[in-house]
Amino acid sequence: MTTALGIAPDSTGKGVDPLTHRQVIKAHWENTGIICGLDVSGRSDLRYDVAQGVAVCSRGNADGYTEAYWGGGQSPAVGAGDPSNPRIDVIWLKANDISQGDSNNAVVSGVTQGTPSANPVAPSIPAGCTRLMSMRMPAGASSTQSATPVDTQDYAIPHGASLGVLARIAENKDLQASSNPAYTAPFLLGTFKMPTDRNLLLAVYACVSTAKKDGSKGVATVRFIVDGRLYTTRKIEYTDSWKTHECTCSLQLAKGSHTIGVAMFNEQGAGYVTHYGAKDNGDNYVGRVLVVKDEGVAR
């Protein structure tokens, strides 16, 4: 038997044991990662600076989560750069636990040194550690000062929270005509990364105009391309000149990195032309914009 978090132990001393506490913490977060701070930077020696901050750590789902505070400091030293090839070092944070075999209960910062290669990959970090940053160590480097970030930080997301706008790719070319044969190659290409499976809304905003201002019909076909494959197709039908239209679709994607793009072309018969882009009289009209919005955790 355990008591609830916030309730004092009973007369026999039974209260919230550590595992229960970790499971309660886990219920507050969708994933492990950085809560705040913990920026990583190079130094004039062979250590990395790790700024003050807090991270969510875990040894596995069955063990729950911990919230670990790091007061700032340096990682252990790494080796100098390989004479010929770069490598990737991964800097991490861990919440030690004596009851699970660690030598103390301290929060520690560590680094896993990668293998030099012409095309290096990030090494795996020890179990129970939370990645803070991957740093590319150049060939021949004698310090970490010239090391550069390989990827963005992974943030811990509160349960049920939205990540907001994940990507926004804009193109503002003047009068890009799209007529038959159709321009079907994807453009507005961008990448984004998600810590958990998410529900997403893709939105395209396009300032369009028919070739003649006489009420003739324009039909713009919009293809949403996800990870190099066609996901779905939408159409914009209009008879106006230089107005911005919105075209959307919803989808669910697994956690990790993804590539998004749009193909857009005219679907009218011969002789029809649909113009996309900024208005050609000097006004700052939007051309075409692709926005990826997070709509919460996928269940």
SSE map:
Blueprint: H1 18-26, E1 33-37, E2 40-42, E3 48-50, E4 53-58, E5 65-70, E6 73-74, E7 87-95, E8 107-112, E9 129-137, E10 148-149, E11 165-171, E12 176-179, E13 187-194, E14 198-210, E15 218-226, E16 229-238, E17 241-253, E18 256-266, E19 273-276, E20 288-297
Antiparallel strand pairs: 1-4, 2-3, 3-6, 4-5, 7-8, 7-9, 9-10, 11-20, 12-19, 13-18, 14-17, 14-19, 14-20, 15-16, 15-18
Total beta strand runs: 20
Task: Estimate the strand proportion.
Answer: over 45%
Mean pLDDT: 86
Between the first and last Cα atoms, what is the distance in angstroms? 30 Å
Tally of alpha and pi helices: 1
* Category by helix and strand content: mainly beta
Element order, helices and strands? HEEEEEEEEEEEEEEEEEEEE
Largest sheet: 6 strands, antiparallel
Shape, per Cα inertia axes: flat
Radius of gyration over alpha carbons? 26 Å
Runs with pLDDT <50, length 5+?
269-273
Level of helix content?
Answer: under 10%
Descriptive report:
Helices cover 3% and strands 47% of the residues. It is flat and about 85 Å long. The strands form five sheets. Strands 11, 12, 14, 17, 19 and 20 form a six-stranded antiparallel beta sheet that branches. It has a four-stranded antiparallel beta sheet with strand order 8-7-9-10, with no helix packed on it. It has a four-stranded antiparallel beta sheet with strand order 13-18-15-16, with no helix packed on it. Mean pLDDT is 86; it is low at 269-273. With 299 residues, it is mainly beta. It is built from one helix and 20 strands. A hairpin with a 5-residue loop joins β2 (40-42) and β3. The two termini are 30 Å apart.
